[in-house]
Amino acid sequence: MSVEWFKWAKTVKGLKSSEKFVLICLADYFNDNLGYAYPAHETIANYTCLERSTINRACKSLQQKGFISWKHQHKDSGRYSSNKYVLHHVADSHKVESNTSVLQSATYPCGTVQQKHLSKHLNLTLNNTNKYKSIKVKKLSEKQESYAEKLANKYWSRYQHEQFAFESLLADCRTYLLSSQTDDDWKAIGNGLPPPSEVVNI
Fold first, then answer.
1. Residue 59 pLDDT level (bands cut at 50, 70, 90)
2. Mean of the pLDDT values across residues 133-153?
3. For domain 3-92, which architecture applies?
4. Residue environment code for 29-49, b if the CB has 16+ CB neighbours within 10 A, otherwise e
5. DSSP conformation letters of 138-171
6. Which pairs count as long-range contacts for 62-66, CB under 8 Å and 24+ apart, including other chains?
């Protein structure tokens, strides 16, 4: 337990109760010597009395807000183990917000929230709409949609006992197929599950 991080986590305001519970849990398990916490999802669930899907949503939200980040770690066998969670003093680095900036987050589900200056980064088109809106309307082909459902069923059949909802898994699979479909793209989704490359052939 890190006394400093634990005290800090308890003082953070503006979070949902589930986010606050998860943040306090990670702070309680934070190892000052290693510089990160590595509780398993089951440990977090037992600590917070929250379901796995709720914990995933809380982690994604905390990452979007800049409070945490994480890296996946694997056992010597190469199989997925637990995450390494790093905590960030958001309040210390964002005390003063410019009134000429807006916050933009990735479309889904856990892109890091970044500060964007209107004059440099919004790049409005002549019809006064954001050209990046085209990203939001990108859709899967019928073949990709069919594969997303098959992939989601594959995950659900293996991990439904860990409180994963099929709809959530399907949304993650759709997001993955809209990306470059690398292992890093899957890990960026932040659901804590191994990438499709480790699942489809099992």
1. very high
2. 79
3. Orthogonal Bundle (1.10)
4. bbeeeeebbbbebeebbebbe
5. ----HHHHHHHHHHHHHHHHHHGGGT--HHHHHH
6. 62/15, 62/19, 62/22, 62/23, 63/110, 63/112, 63/190, 64/105, 64/106, 64/110, 64/111, 64/112, 64/113, 65/15, 65/90, 65/113, 66/90, 66/93, 66/94, 66/112, 66/113
| pLDDT 10s digits, 6-52 | 888 889 998 999 999 999 999 999 998 888 898 888 899 999 999 98
For residue 120, pLDDT over 80 is answered with no
The two structure tokens encoding residue 156? 């659900």
The ranges assigned to domains in the chain are 3-92, 96-136, 142-199
